[in-house]
Amino acid sequence: MKIKFILAIFLCIALSVFGQTDLDIPITPSKDQELDRAAGYSRTLSNFDGSINAYARLKAYINLLDSKGMQALKSHPSYPKLGDIYMYGAIYLEKEFKEDKIIELYEKALELRAEPNSNYKLALKYKTKYDNAVKKNDLEKEMEYGKKVYEYLNTYLTLSGNKSQKYKEILEYFSIYK
Predict the structure, then answer these.
(1) Which terminus of the chain is more exposed, N or C, with fewer CB under 10 A?
(2) Share above pLDDT 90 across residues of the chain, in percent, rounded to a whole number
């Protein structure tokens, strides 16, 4: 009888704790509680509401990650979740930040997680820079950006498994810059 009572209490406590919708427990806690909170925050980014508070919070978490340094981020057990913050930051803050900052955010996201869409976005960003370099007849920049387009587009095609002939032709064109 006592065992059933204790089990019933334990079950009630477990249901009340794990039934909360805003309970964020990192998969593997680390010694750095700030990064643990950031990993928990990353789970909410798919429901980004676009409010001023949401933008401020996203920027604050990006600044926190930048202040920690890439080595500390890579050593965190939930480092792919930290990469999500950079990726969503690049997506949601595209109108606020300059293009170079967006590229930097995507590159940091890719350092922490392998995700084909970030590679595709970077290929597009560098393609725009490549086009501008061609218009300005800047051969050095044209070579640099052409190489980046090839690198990121090739990675995108590899990770996504996309077999589109259109992308293969574009990749073949930029293969001269490898």
Answers:
(1) N
(2) 48
Task: From 145, 85, 143, 144, select the one nearest 115 (Cα to Cα).
Answer: 85
Token pair in block for residue 20: 């909360």
Structure tokens at 31: 């010694």
Q: Which residue has the tokens 């794990």?
A: 18
Single out the residue of 85, 156, 75 nearest to residue 118, CA to CA. 156
- Gyration radius of the chain over CA positions: 22
Three-class secondary structure assignment of 27-68: CCCCCCHHHHHHHHHHCCHHHCCCCHHHHHHHHHHHHHHHHH
Residue 124's nearest CA partner among 106, 108, 141, 109 is 106
pTM for the complete prediction? Answer: 0.76
CB-based burial label for 62 (10 Å; 0-12, 13-18, 19+)? buried
- The one-character DSSP state at 177 is G
